[in-house]
Amino acid sequence: MSNKKNLTLFGFFALTATMVMTVYEYPSFASSGFSLVFYLIVGGFFWFLPVALCAAEMATVKGWDTGGVYAWSGNLLGEKWGFANIFFQWFQGTVGFVTMIYFILSALSYVFNFEPLNSNPMVRFLGVVLIFWIVTLSQFKGTKISAKISRYGFIIGILIPALVLFGLTIAYFLTGGKSLLTFDFKTFIPDFSKVNTLVVFVSFILAYAGIEASASHANEMKNVKRDYPIAVIGLVILAILLNTMGGLSIGSVVPADKLGLSTGVLQGFKGLLAHFGTNFEWIVRVIAILISMGVLAETTAWIVGPSWGMQVAGKTGLLPKSLSKTNKDGVPTQFLILQGVIVTIWAAILTFGGNGNSNLSFFAGMSLTVIIYALAYIIFFVAYLVLVTKHDSIERAFRISKSKIVQYFFGISGLVFSIIVFFISFIPPSQLHSSTAQREYFMILIVSFILVVFVPFIIYQIMRKKNPLPKGAKMPTLEEDETHGN
After folding, report:
1. In the chain, what is the greatest distance between 2 CA atoms, to the nearest angstrom?
2. How is residue 467 annotated by DSSP?
3. Under 8 Å CB-to-CB from 231, ≥6 apart: which residues?
4. Are 69 and 85 contacting, i.e. CB atoms less than 8 angstroms apart?
5. 215 in helix, strand or coil?
6. Is residue 3 situated within a structural domain?
7. At CA 62, angle to CA 60 and CA 91, rounded to 5?
8. Please, which residues have CB within 8 angstroms of residue 378's CB and are 6 or more apart in sequence?
9. How far apart are CA 35 and CA 191, in angstroms?
10. How far, in Å, are 31, 37, 353 from residue 250 at the CA level?
11. Domain assignment of residue 351, yes or no
């Protein structure tokens, strides 16, 4: 990690925004009606903000700015937990890739009027596998090109469609358009008596997840103590506003019983444009292509990105040497092939396990991603609370507050919400009406969770027995970094 203090407030803001802003999740928000605003506010200030602030404290400890959660949790809870943390953070992406490509297939299905891409399980599965492996193999020559794709993809596939959507929505209401949603206090507060409606909250957490990955860049900010909190608070507010506008735009014109989670964005554009005439079908197709490019760029960015933390752990002997080796372009090709195999397996489980039900597959994939990610965040927040409780004198460039009460508030808030999200993710969502679909959803999650939860601990025990931690690769101890005069 560079020690140069050359990252401006706007530079950090833009870098982080590209990691957490999406358009394709708007339909998930819209499915909650006006209560989406409640979910976004609660999730933003009581989970998203704690993740960002707690990550910054741990990332700015001297020597902990590489390796991400592996270094943070490893130093505070022990290397085994650090490895479990980075494993779950990486592994959730192998599920998330499937849901991202589901959206691409749905968009292409609409553009080319080829329904099997969205409804036929075998075609859907082959589509996911083909797209993912093409993108994976394209990374073998290095990530310089993919970095440009990600940058332009954000502008073309996320920013432009979002601005067009908001512009159309404003014009829709100014010209007499009526909303299908009811805007009042009763619809603002979710019905907590119906537990299965809460499972939709997982989509809001998933929309915010990943901000901790940018925390390591806090050390590069010119004035981290002043600029970091401004950047993350601004990002929370912007994310709440944009996601609110996006969700309400789609929910206002698409009936809840006809809303497709992987096709809802296009349904929203189609509904808004229908208000102005009937000859705008080509615009919807163009938007579908643009959003597909944005999601493809996001997929490209995450193909290699999450694997780097695992590579840090791998270099200390926690992965076979073949998985830690890189090619002449610095890409861990063997590891990416393994990742591709895992994604292919998940695509089969989610697609065929969903029995052809695209909403079930999308919901199951999204919930499974959150379940695995929630495990990573639970370890993450426990590590932060240990830092505050036992090692608060460790020097770091950024602190949430000098008050331990404030530090505990953010740490406990994030931990509690992570635990809540973990458990409610197993509850079948109300959008799955049949008992058969609900049973399949639950079985997919339970079986998948059991298969995943023990994996990092088994890998750790096997690899550490085979490769004891080398002296040169020893993780920095708390005593080495601790400054009692702080």
Report:
1. 71
2. S
3. 9, 12, 13, 16
4. yes
5. helix
6. no
7. 60
8. 415, 418, 419, 422
9. 9
10. 9, 14, 28
11. yes
Q: 32 is written with which tokens? A: 């909650």
Helix pair 9-20, 224-253: axis angle to 10 deg: 40
In whole angstroms, what separates CA 401 from the centre of its chain?
Answer: 27
Nearest-CA neighbor of 96 among 368, 454, 293, 284? 368
Residue range(s) defining the domain that contains residue 313? 9-481
The token duo for 166 is 């908001």
Is residue 92 within 8 A of residue 456, CB to CB? The reply is: no
Here the tokens at position 90 are 């990486």
Which amino acid, one-letter code, is at 48? Answer: F
> Which residues lie closer than 8 Å to 415 by C-beta, 6 or more apart?
378, 381, 382, 385
Give pLDDT, residue 68.
79
276 pLDDT above the threshold of 80: yes
**What's the rounded Cα separation, in Å, for the pair 58 and 228?**
13
Buried b (16+ CB within 10 A) or exposed e, 327-357: eeeebbbbbbebbbeebbebbebbbebbeeb
Q: How far apart are CA 243 and CA 450, in angstroms?
A: 33
User: Do the domain assignments include residue 486?
Assistant: no
CA contacts within 13 A on the Cβ side of 345: 12
Q: Give exposure, 4-26, as e/b (b: 16+ Cβ within 10 Å).
A: eeebebebbbeebbbbbbbbbbb
> CATH number, domain at 39?
1.20.1740.10
> pLDDT tens digits for 310-362?
887 888 888 888 888 888 877 888 999 999 999 999 898 888 875 555 567 76
Residues 442-465 pLDDT 10s: 888 898 889 889 999 999 999 999
**Single pTM value for the model:** 0.83
In a domain, 182, yes or no: yes
Q: Letter for the amino acid at 447? A: V
